[in-house]
Amino acid sequence: MLAELGSSLVDAGQYDAAAAVLTEAQGSAQDRQDHTAAATAELAGLWLAAARDPSGWALRAEPAAHTALSAFSRAGDDGGRARAWAVLAEVAFLQCRIADCEQAVRRASRFARRAGNVREEAQNAGVLALTALVGPLPTEAALRRCRRLLTTYRDNPFVQGRVLTVLGVLLATTGDSAAARAALASSIERLESLAGDRR
User: Fold this and answer.
1) Which of 14, 18, 52, 73 is most buried, judged by most C-beta within 10 A?
2) Cα-trace Rg, the chain
3) What whole-number distance in Å separates Cα of residue 61 and Cα of residue 66?
4) Which helix (H) or strand (E) holds 82?
5) What is the pLDDT of residue 115?
6) What's the pLDDT tens digit per position in 99-134?
7) Claim: this prediction has a pTM higher than 0.85
8) How would DSSP label each residue in 49-74?
9) Which are the contacts of 111, defined by CB distance < 8 A and separation ≥ 6?
10) What are the sequence ranges of the domains in the chain?
11) Exposed e or buried b for every residue in 177-199, given b needs 16+ CB within 10 A?
12) CB-based contacts of 135: which residues, under 8 Å, 6+ apart?
C-alpha cells in the first residue's frame, strides 16, 4: 500500500512527500523480505527520479526495471510486470529505439489488461499513438493505428485526447488542415473535460 501511495504522490507532483513514503516502503519491504513490494517501490522511485532529475535516468532505470520484472515474474504479478514493461518502454523511447518501445509497451498493455488495470492500459495506448507519429510507420499506417485506438477506447477521454492530438498532427502532414484542426479541437475538448472532473 505504501508503494502505491508513493506512486500516486509522484503522479500528483508531490515529490517530497512521495520520496518520504517510498523510502518507508522500501525499508518495510526489505524488513519483510517482500520482493514484489520492494520492486513496486523501486519502480515508483524511478518515476520520481525521472521527474526530479532526468539526466542519466535511462541508464539507471533499465537494469532496475529488469530486476523488478524478474521479481514480478517469479510472483506471477501481472500488474507489476505491466509497470516494469512501461518503464522499459520509456527507456527505449528516450533512447530513440522506437521498435523496442512499441514491443515493450504492447507487453505492458497485455499485462495491464490481464491485471484489470484500466489506467495503465490507457497510458500505454497513448504511447502507441505517439510512436505511430515519431516512429518509422508510413503516414497511412499511423493514421489507421490512431483510428483503431480511438475505436477501441471510445469511452476513455484520456486516451481519446492523446490519440486525437497525434491524429491532428498526422492529418496536418497530409495537407488536410481542416481535419487536423477538428481533431486537435476534439482533443482539447476531451482533455479539458478531464481537467474539469478533477476540480
Assistant:
1) 18
2) 18
3) 9
4) helix 78-94
5) 96
6) 999 999 999 999 999 999 999 999 999 999 999 999
7) yes
8) HHHH--TTHHHHHHHHHHHHHHHHHH
9) 78, 79, 81, 82, 85
10) 1-53, 55-136, 137-199
11) eeebeebbebbeebbeeeeeeee
12) 98, 99, 101, 102, 142
The residue count for the chain: 199
Question: Is there a contact between 149 and 163 (Cβ–Cβ < 8 Å)?
Answer: yes
DSSP state of 154: T
Listed in sequence order, the residues at least 6 apart from 16 whose beta carbon sits closer than 8 Å to its beta carbon are none
Residue with cell 521527474: 51
What are 44's three cell numbers? 515508483
Contacts of 1 (CB under 8 A, 6+ apart): none
Distance CA(186)–CA(183), nearest Å, equals: 5
**What's the grid cell of residue 103?**
514491443
Cell 525499508: give the residue: 27
Compute φ and ψ for 101, nearest 5 degrees. -60, -45
Q: Which of 24, 68, 72 is nearest to 42 (CA)?
A: 68
63-74 confidence digits (pLDDT tens): 999 999 999 999
Whose cell is 535516468? That residue is 57
